[in-house]
Write a structure and sequence with these properties.
- This protein has 1511 residues and is an alpha+beta fold.
- It is built from 26 helices and 81 strands.
- It has an eight-stranded mixed beta sheet with strand order 49-51-54-53-52-55-56-50, with no helix packed on it. The chain has a seven-stranded antiparallel beta sheet with strand order 66-67-70-69-68-71-72, with no helix packed on it. Strands 73, 74, 75, 76, 77 and 80 form a six-stranded mixed beta sheet that branches.
- It is globular.
- The termini are far apart.
């Protein structure tokens, strides 16, 4: 049984190359045919057949390679990839027959061959036969498709239309006919694949010449076949054949009628390249890509009405016949002319047409790998073409494209050996209702409930608006009419399609600043129009500004109009006056502006009029360069005449409705400089010179091509000093303007020369630390990653020899072998004698072992010997000298040295023996100590238990305002105190004074607030600390309106992403260097506080408690704060001496008469200092009773009971050990305190201690005067303390890190999973909302790299919020953070962030221990993080209304907890300091004058109102 799967695996072979992340699949060979049926795509390549799911995930693949065996080699059997084969099936017909669940695959091995495969499992071959169906040639202009013929029951046949060939010799049975019908099953007459019908065959033949078939399809019973009929005079006819699928095959084929398709201008040389039917009813519309001149470049997309004309006589066509030779008179077929020229674009290769509502949508494939989309309305007006996909190289799009039948939202785009699945629209990239409408995309609607641009079926209700059924220039237009009574009516027309809910909630509002505008109306306006009858029939001469607000459902539209008296718009009839007339809503009639009724209503008439200004008409002679990549080109030069008045250069593609304009400079009248802008579309564009009056003159062309790509670099390395000539290889390299290296991005190397395939330049120098450098090509404003080059040390030339050969001198140069592979052409050599230089011509290069030899000749020279040689490579020059005889004397002297060394060694050996015995004893002792340390570490590790407490009682959470203020102001206690209300004020709503109220109102204006932030950030004196303070003060001031704060933050983030988009998007939000980044930190903290307390807080506190307890198990050095049990190697107390654990009975003095409490058992260590013992006593007291001891640590003293009397325990006393000038702190071991000893705790205030001593840590030089467990760096006599003599190795104690990790690991895991866990499979609303916002930003910026989004999410949530909490538990709990705890939390926080990292870190023995500790856990955590991010992405979106409600609840819950007034006063300090800059910024952004006035009012209020005190 195990043999069968293995055999199948060999037969079917490797399934395919790769499934791509961006919705595509790469095959092992070029695509020959492909087809789609229901939810599956079938692709035939040169040597394989693939079965893919509709999203292009591989299901299976089948090899087409095999062997022909049997008599006449008529049996084809597939073989494994590794076996020999003698035949390959090349597929010409691939047709899914859904009703039979079969896939028909026909083609050529040597002769024709057909198979019927299982539609759901192509490896299941149901039937096979050596028979010709379709073209008998592997490459020909032939088509095949399924047709239904109505008989007693509907029968399905294969219609094959084949290009005819007359081979000289062939042993195959060939079809010479043009059109045939083949059976599809054995129940049909003549059996499967047969041509026969009633035992006779019938077909359609080409009467004279050949036919090249392009496409064919069936609508109802009518069959359409398209072909090119070439002739000897290079003319070509494009023919359409109509057939009717009725009765027998013979009847179907003899129903032949036809038509000739002709271009509007005649076009005898035109050819049909690709075709697509337009779905829909009558008339039958069809689109074809035509070559205008018969070549591949000059192409047009034409629309024809091909409704079949069945009125004429059948089978009388002059080019095709069913009954041949013809017995009837041939008649000239009718000629069809195009309804419209839809699109012009060079190198179109394929077309797909789709109906979407009232629109036709066309998808165009091109020869340079583009997918272009545009829509056409019922009047055949086209929208702006948009590039949906652009291949990196110039891979041609296959002649056929298909729509994904599962979701109807993706196009299958075949490119050479790739299949892409491209979305039909990018609706989500349009962020406003205006953008969504302006896209003129029939697929997109503006969904009011989601406030986003989506597909219609993604909008959950009918509250949506979209483009109208015909092409319109504006979303809202208006007209002003005046009747005979002088009454003026303003008519508003919306050019929209709307859902039922949006239509039923249609309203209009007209307003002006001073008074009412319209007369009251009794009826509601009816979508799509509304009108306003003006109360006042007199309009002011300067015009009347009117604001129009329209509501459709929940969507509001706003427009600003300026009404003018149409009769007052007078003057000579120029284009300027004409446009002014239309902009006022008036009409244009007989070159005069009039009221709107009557006259021309389309402002296109203005374009045909003179501007009324006199300029010399410019002419364009040339543009340099005129061929560029689609990234454009900087500093192009346009040459011509009369260019002095040219202000801009307009670049417009054929039929493009959004031309680009580029400013000009260096204009000297006969030439000027301008930038050629980038474009989405490859191809040729028109260029004209723009004058100030808007007219454009001249006609030149620029061709956009693909961007440069690199495939290789020769040589692949450079010497470190640089200036080595290297050549990049690839394609389109003529567009590379410069080369940059990653180690020196500031320097742009200008190419020496460049062409399509090669670019040569000199490498820059590099630092000695640089081993490799990434190359970047500079193309216009883009920097493209290209290749990598290695850097090696400069070549080392060691010596040379010269010998005379006739009149010449032969020079051999020796060089150390290296990896540079230096060539002869890279060296220039001269012989130098008496100041003269003689060129040495390179002859050969040889290599031997570790030396390279360069051989050159100095021709016709009198000198036989040269004393010097000058060698030049790159820009380095090396001088070699002839070796001196002194070297021989030096060599002899060196030979004497070994004798001297031997004599010294004999003497040394005798002394060594004496020391050996002494050293052996010392080493044995040392080894025994190290063995004991290692064994103890191993025992600790194996016996370590996670026995730390699971329950900690009540968790000391800080209240919200103290938590928030510590996040807002971590480094400013003064601001923290200022912005928090005192206890008792929380419930009181303090009324703001007048100046603060006016500032608060001003901050509620988003334009002002964002302008203010940008103005402040542009100032060099505005530091990062100021930015953080500004963000936090704004957070406090706007805390009661979190919805508004969120909108402001999103606006600032959008600006930040745009600012970073052209450099390194992965660095976004990585640090806190801007106001909005700190604002995001605060916002996350506010919105996630509830989740922190409810889901994460307990796990965080348990982990912190576990770390504290684990640290307390071992020694902690009181001076350096290092601990034996820690997670950080830097804080590991590896020098600690031996210690034991002690159980102490602690009595607390109560009252003043010497009474004591019940004993409390406290665990301490023999090496603990007196201060540490006090801390452990008070900590145990708090854990036992749930409240702290009533005396502060510094006011507590302890005494030890010894033989019935109490002795004071002091940190330092007369018995303390002193080394040099440094005193050791006393420990329990120093006082010889035994296990079970009694300790009494007294208060210094109530019970004067036996000895008075303050805290030593108050001493500024504490660490310099005292030591605890780590000996000071001074010499001492180890005989006094033999334990110090032991050698301590840090590496021996590294197991303590691991035992600490084991002890707390379960707490760490629980904490991590509480953070990225998904209760009820839902992330917190805040996280989902913000991640969706990041997705939208990435779409807007056309960022498709998933790594960028992952990094943005990680920078904004884990890095910005959770790491801050993990490292600072004192922000959340009422606790102190010790240095030991801080070091452990740092390691855990690093592991947490590593779990979110995308890079795979290779760890070796030299890797830092904090990385090694969690190395095995990180991969598991990374999988959990990926699942977490995926679950969030798959979660249903949070609507704006839901999130707004959540924010309102948060604001309300924490209302009045902050001192808003204090925050506003602090904010005004910034405004006061940068008042002029803020005012200038408002002017710069075109803010309304009301805002500037409000700003002055605020300033006057604060400056003049004494009650607005700063304190």
């Amino acid at each position: 049984m195990m043999l069968l799967p293995g055999l199948l695996l060999l037969l079917w072979g490797e399934p395919g190359r790769c499934l791509e992340e961006n919705g595509g699949f790469t095959f092992d060979g070029d695509i020959r045919h492909f087809a789609a049926a229901t939810n599956t795509v079938y692709v035939a390549t040169e040597e394989r057949l693939y079965q893919l799911s509709h999203d292009l995930t591989l299901v299976q693949s089948l090899t087409q390679r095999g062997v022909l065996t049997g008599k006449d080699q008529r049996s084809f059997t597939r073989v494994a990839e590794t076996e020999e084969r003698n035949a390959t099936l090349r597929v010409n017909i691939l047709l899914p027959l859904v009703k039979d669940q079969s896939l028909i695959s026909c083609g050529v091995i040597e002769c024709g061959y057909c198979e019927m495969l299982d539609l759901k499992n192509i490896s299941n071959v149901r039937y096979k036969e050596h028979i010709t169906v379709g073209s008998p040639w592997t490459s020909s202009a032939s088509v095949g498709f399924l047709v239904d013929v109505e008989q007693k029951q509907t029968e399905t046949f294969i219609l094959s239309a084949n290009q005819q060939y007359q081979p000289k010799k062939s042993r195959c049975i060939l079809e010479s006919d043009a059109v045939n019908l083949h059976n599809t099953n054995d129940d049909q007459k003549g059996f499967i694949f047969s041509l026969n019908d009633d035992y006779t065959g019938s077909s359609i033949k080409r009467i004279n010449g050949k036919a090249e078939f392009v496409d064919g399809f069936q609508i109802d019973l009518n069959i359409y076949i398209f072909s090119n009929l070439p002739s000897s005079d290079k003319n070509n006819k494009v023919r359409l054949i109509w057939l009717v699928g009725k009765n027998k095959k013979k009847d179907t084929l003899s129903s032949l009628r036809g038509a000739t398709l002709r271009l509007s201008g005649g076009g005898d040389g035109s050819r049909l390249l690709a075709s697509a039917r337009v779905p829909g009813g009558e008339p039958v519309l069809w689109s074809g890509v035509f070559s205008v001149d018969g070549g591949p470049s000059n192409t047009e997309l034409l629309l024809f009405d091909i409704s079949p004309d069945l009125s004429g006589e059948a089978d009388v066509d002059p080019d095709f016949c069913s009954v041949c030779p013809p017995v009837k008179e041939r008649k000239t077929p009718k000629t069809l002319k195009p309804e419209a020229v839809l699109f012009r674009q060079n190198y179109m290769t394929s077309v797909l047409a789709v109906r979407q509502k009232a629109w036709m949508v066309f998808f165009i494939g091109t020869g340079d790998g583009q997918l272009i989309k545009f829509a056409v309305d019922k009047n055949y007006q086209t929208t702006c073409p948009r590039v949906l996909y652009r291949a990196d190289g110039d891979r041609q799009v296959f002649s056929k494209m298909l729509l994904d039948q599962v979701d109807l939202k993706h196009v299958y785009l075949p490119l050479q050996n790739q299949m892409k699945r491209v979305p039909v629209s990018k609706c989500s990239s349009y962020t406003s209702v205006q953008d969504c409408w302006s896209a003129q995309d029939p697929y997109c609607v503006w969904c009011g409930s989601r406030r986003s641009c989506t597909f219609e079926d993604d909008c959950q209700d009918s509250d949506w608006i979209s483009i109208p059924e015909d092409s319109q220039p504006k979303m809202v237009s208006y007209k002003v009419a005046k009747d005979g009574t002088g009454q003026i009516t303003l008519d508003i027309q919306t050019h929209l399609t709307a859902g039922q809910e949006a239509q039923s909630n249609f309203a209009c509002q007209f307003s002006i600043s001073s008074s009412e505008l319209c007369r009251p109306q009794s009826t509601r306006p009816q979508f799509p129009k509304c009108s306003c009858v003006l109360l006042n029939s007199a309009l002011p001469a300067e015009g009347l500004p009117v604001t129009v607000k329209l509501r459709l459902g929940t969507t509001e539209l706003r427009d600003q109009l300026k009404l003018s008296n149409c009769s007052d718009i007078k003057g000579p009839p120029t284009s300027v006056l004409c446009r002014q007339c239309f902009e006022a809503g008036c009409g244009w009639s007989k070159n005069v502006c009039s009221w709107a009724k009557g006259g021309v209503e389309d402002d296109k008439v203005c374009q045909m009029m003179e501007s009324g200004t006199n300029f010399f008409k410019p002419e364009i002679f040339s543009i340099t360069p005129s061929v560029v990549s689609f990234y454009g080109r900087n500093h192009a030069v346009l040459s011509g005449s009369n260019l002095s008045d040219v202000t801009r250069v307009r670049i417009q593609a054929d039929m493009d409705c959004t031309p680009q304009e580029s400013p000009v400079w260096n204009n000297v009248g006969v030439n000027l400089t301008f930038h050629i802008p980038s474009t989405d579309n490859k191809g040729t564009v028109q260029v004209c010179a723009l004058l100030p009056d808007g007219s454009c003159h001249g006609n030149a062309k620029i061709t956009y091509r693909s961007s440069p790509t690199c495939t290789n670099i020769v040589p692949g390395c450079s010497w470190i000093s640089g200036k080595r000539e290297v050549t990049l290889m690839g394609s389109h390299l003529e567009f590379g303007e410069g080369v940059m290296h990653s180690h020196d991005l500031q320097e742009v190397r200008i190419p020496r020369n460049r062409n399509y395939q090669n670019l040569t330049y000199d490498t820059p120098a590099a630092d000695k630390k640089v081993s490799s450098s990434t190359l970047f090509l500079k193309v216009a404003n883009e920097t493209l990653a290209c290749s990598t080059i290695k850097y090696y040390p400069d070549p080392e030339f060691t010596s040379f020899t010269s010998t005379r050969t006739g009149d010449d001198v032969r020079v051999t140069i020796q060089k150390k072998a290296d990896k540079l592979e230096m060539g002869m052409a890279e060296l220039s050599v001269w012989g130098v004698e008496e100041g003269k230089q003689y060129p040495c011509i390179m002859e050969a290069k040889e290599s031997s072992n570790e030396t390279d030899f360069f051989i050159c000749e100095i021709r016709q020279t009198p000198n036989a010997k040269f004393q010097h040689l000058k060698i030049q490579y790159g820009d380095q020059t090396v001088t070699l000298n002839v070796r001196s005889p002194l070297l021989l004397y030096l060599l002899l002297a060196l030979l004497l040295i070994p004798g001297i060394v031997v004599a010294v060694w004999i003497f040394y050996r005798s002394q060594q023996k004496k020391l050996t015995a002494k050293m052996n004893k010392r080493m044995e002792d040392l080894e025994l100590d190290i063995r004991n340390d290692i064994r103890q570490g191993f025992v600790d590790l194996q016996t370590e238990k996670a026995d730390l407490m699971e329950s900690v009682g009540a968790i000391p959470f800080l209240d919200y305002k103290h938590f928030a203020s510590r996040i807002f102001f971590p480094e400013s206690e003064s601001l923290m105190a200022l912005c928090i209300k005192d206890i008792g004020q929380d419930a009181v709503k303090v009324q703001l004074d007048e100046c603060c109220q006016s500032l608060s109102r001003l901050l509620q204006d988003q334009l002002f607030l964002t302008s203010m932030v940008h103005a402040l950030e542009e100032q060099k004196s505005f530091t990062i600390k100021d930015k953080c303070a500004l963000a936090s003060l704004l957070t406090v001031a706007l805390h009661n309106n979190l919805s508004y704060l969120t909108e402001v933050m999103k606006t600032l983030l959008r600006a930040l992403t745009q600012q970073n988009s052209n450099t390194q998007p992965k660095l976004l939000l990585r640090r806190t260097e801007s106001t909005v980044e700190k604002l995001l930190t605060n916002w996350m903290s506010i919105c996630l506080y509830g989740f922190l307390r409810e889901s994460v807080g307990q796990h965080l506190f348990l982990m912190v408690s576990a770390l504290t307890q684990q640290t307390a198990k071992g020694p902690v050095d009181c001076v350096t704060e290092k601990a034996l049990y820690t997670l950080s190697e830097d804080w590991l107390l590896w020098q600690a001496q031996d210690f034991i654990s002690l159980k102490l009975k602690v009595l607390f003095a109560v009252g003043s008469d010497g009474e004591v409490s019940e004993p409390l058992e406290v665990t301490a260590l023999s090496c603990d200092s007196v201060e540490q013992v006090k801390e452990k006593i008070l900590s145990t007291f708090k854990a036992k009773f749930g409240f702290p001891y009533n005396t502060h640590l510094r006011d507590v003293c302890i005494e030890y009971e010894n033989n019935g009397s109490f002795a004071a325990l002091e940190e330092v006393d007369a018995s303390s050990e002193v080394i040099g000038e440094v005193t050791m702190l006393n420990t329990l071991k120093h006082y010889k305190v035994p296990d079970g000893a009694t300790i009494k705790v007294l208060s210094k205030k109530g019970h004067p201690p036996l000895s008075q001593q303050g805290s030593l840590k108050d001493d500024e030089n504490f660490s310099g005067k005292y030591f605890h467990l780590i000996d000071p760096d001074v010499d001492e006599d180890h005989r006094k303390n033999p334990e110090r003599k032991k050698l301590k190795l840090k590496e021996v104690h590294l197991t303590k890190l691991l035992s600490t990790k084991v002890a707390v690991h379960s707490f760490v895991e629980n904490l991590f999973r509480s953070i990225w866990g998904m209760p009820q499979s839902k992330a917190p609303q805040t996280v989902k909302y913000f991640f969706d916002f990041l997705h939208t930003q990435a779409d807007n910026m056309k960022i498709t790299d998933p790594d960028v989004l992952h990094i943005w999410k990680t920078n904004s949530l884990p890095l910005r919020f959770w790491v801050n909490i993990l490292k600072n538990p004192q922000f959340v709990f009422d606790m102190e953070k010790t240095p030991q705890l801080d070091s452990c939390l740092t390691v855990i926080a690093q592991a947490f962030m590593d779990s979110f990292s995308l890079s795979e870190t290779q760890l070796g023995k030299h890797a830092p221990t904090n990385k090694l500790l969690y190395a095995k856990d990180i991969p598991k955590f990374k999988q959990e993080v990926k699942a977490y991010y995926k679950q969030i992405k798959d979660q249903a979106p949070i609507t704006e209304s839901e999130f707004k409600e959540f924010l309102q609840d948060v604001s309300k819950k924490h209302e009045n907890e902050f001192n808003e007034s204090a925050a506003l006063r602090e904010l005004y300090k910034f405004i006061q300091r940068y008042f002029t800059e803020i005012k200038d910024k408002l002017d710069q952004v075109g803010a309304p004058t009301e805002l500037t006035e409000q700003l002055h009012h605020v300033k006057n209020s604060f400056d003049g109102l004494k009650s607005c005190s700063w304190n």
